[in-house]
Amino acid sequence: MWAVYDENELIGELCAEMIDYQTVGISYVVNPHKRNQGYCKRMLKEMLELKELSCIHCFEAWVDSDNDPSIRCLEDTGFETTRTAGYYGLLKDAYFYGVHKIL
């Protein structure tokens, strides 16, 4: 997990959790006062370029179908929709996004 600060102000947090030896699930949150300023894209791009994660072939994220800013952020950083699913039996859909690194 990474916490991102601008001087003393928390911008957001990014978490990467190993699913298996080549796949990482990611989650993130951005301070509401700092949204729509490109911080999430920057956090994701920098995480994807980390040398420590160079052995990872796939990064995955779930996002609610009505979370347009998060969907745009994922798509702008190279993620693609790989499937949709009902969200824990509720009527709301969730999209599954993944980015696969080519070795």
Descriptive account of the structure:
This protein is of the alpha+beta class. The protein has a single domain (about 1-100), classed as Gcn5-related N-acetyltransferase (GNAT) (Aminopeptidase, 3-Layer(aba) Sandwich), CATH 3.40.630.30. About 20% of the residues lie in helices and about 50% in strands. It contains two helices and six strands; from the N terminus they run E-E-E-H-E-H-E-E. It has helices spanning about 40-50, 70-75, and strands at about 1-5, 10-20, 25-30, 60-65, 80-85, 90-100. The chain has a six-stranded mixed beta sheet with strand order 1-2-3-4-6-5, covered by helices on one side. Strand 1 and strand 2 form a beta hairpin. The protein is globular. The two termini are about 25 Å apart.
Briefly summarize what is shown.
With 103 residues, the protein is α+β, with helices and mostly antiparallel strands.
Question: What keyword list fits this structure?
Answer:
single chain; 103 residues; alpha+beta; Aminopeptidase; six-stranded mixed beta sheet; 2 helices; 18% helix; 50% strand
- Unreliable spans are none
Q: Which secondary-structure class do the elements indicate?
A: alpha+beta
Q: Give the CATH class.
A: Alpha Beta
Helical fraction equals: 10-25%
| N-end to C-end Cα span | 25 Å
Total beta-strand segments? 6
Biggest β-sheet: count, sense, barrel?
A: 6 strands, mixed
Quaternary organisation: single chain
> What's the pLDDT, averaged over the residues?
83
Q: Any idea what the CATH superfamily is called?
A: Gcn5-related N-acetyltransferase (GNAT)
| Helical run tally | 2
Shape: globular
- In the residues, how many domains can be counted? 1
Strand content: over 45%
The arrangement of helices and strands along the chain is: EEEHEHEE
CATH architecture call: 3-Layer(aba) Sandwich
CATH-defined fold name: Aminopeptidase
